[in-house]
Write a structure and sequence with these properties.
Elements lengths: L1 H14 L1 H7 L4 H21 L9 H12 L4 E8 L3 E8 L6 E9 L3 H15 L6 E8 L4 H15 L9 E2 L5 E7 L5 E10 L4
Parallel strand pairs: 3-4, 4-7
Antiparallel strand pairs: 1-2, 2-3, 5-6, 6-7
Length: 200
């Protein structure tokens, strides 16, 4: 039996190393590093199929992300209640305590609209127990690099929602991180994830 289990782990490690990294993460930093690899896969899948998903609204696009990320040990649900119906709730079931990421999604409509999403995520849905918040920006316009850059510049100028300092680079392209003081007394990190859905 032990040999079979070792063989299975070796096969999974070879075929899906990010999955093993997620399941075996020993702390929050390791978990987030493994999660971001999976998240990049979900965003890339969405982008490669943007013409197929062109008719979808925020909820439909978030369903694509949710279905891609859902796997044993990682539950992703839509419209789950957390002081209102949050677009995405991502929970690592195998952890104790449970690691949770709440996600809000917006079709890109300028920096002010994006910042409203940050306020909604932090001021309404987040309790302070979450590992991180995520704001998905579905960009259907040209020049996602410039558009996300303008959001980041505005956030650095205004420091909205008690942002503690300048935004930070993220490992994902067209994405960045911000940190905010939450009403719970805990600083919450938010990942701002740009998804390039421009199609000619």
């Amino acid at each position: 039996m032990e040999g079979n289990l070792t063989d299975l782990v070796a096969i999974v490690q070879k075929k899906a190393p990010e999955y093993i990294d997620l399941l075996t993460s020993e702390d929050d930093a390791q978990f987030l590093e493994a999660f971001d690899v999976l998240l990049e896969g979900a965003v890339t899948h969405l982008e490669k199929n943007c013409k197929n998903f062109n008719s979808l609204d925020e909820e439909g696009l978030s369903a694509v992300i949710a279905s891609y990320l859902t796997m044993p040990g990682l539950s992703v649900t839509q419209e789950t209640n957390s002081n209102g119906h949050v677009d995405l709730t991502i929970e690592a079931d195998h952890c104790s305590p449970r690691r949770t990421i709440l996600g809000e999604a917006k079709i890109y409509d300028g920096p002010a609209h994006h910042i409203q999403g940050v306020a909604q995520l932090l001021g309404r849905y987040t309790t302070g127990r979450e590992l991180r918040g995520a704001l998905f920006s579905y960009v259907r316009k040209k020049n996602i690099a410039g558009l996300i850059g303008s959001v980041r510049k505005r956030m650095d100028e205004e420091l909205p929602e008690k942002q503690t300092g300048p935004t930070m680079d993220h490992t994902l392209m067209w994405s960045f991180l911000s940190e905010h003081q939450h009403s719970s007394g805990t600083d919450i990190q938010v990942e701002h994830v740009g998804c390039n859905l421009y199609a000619d």
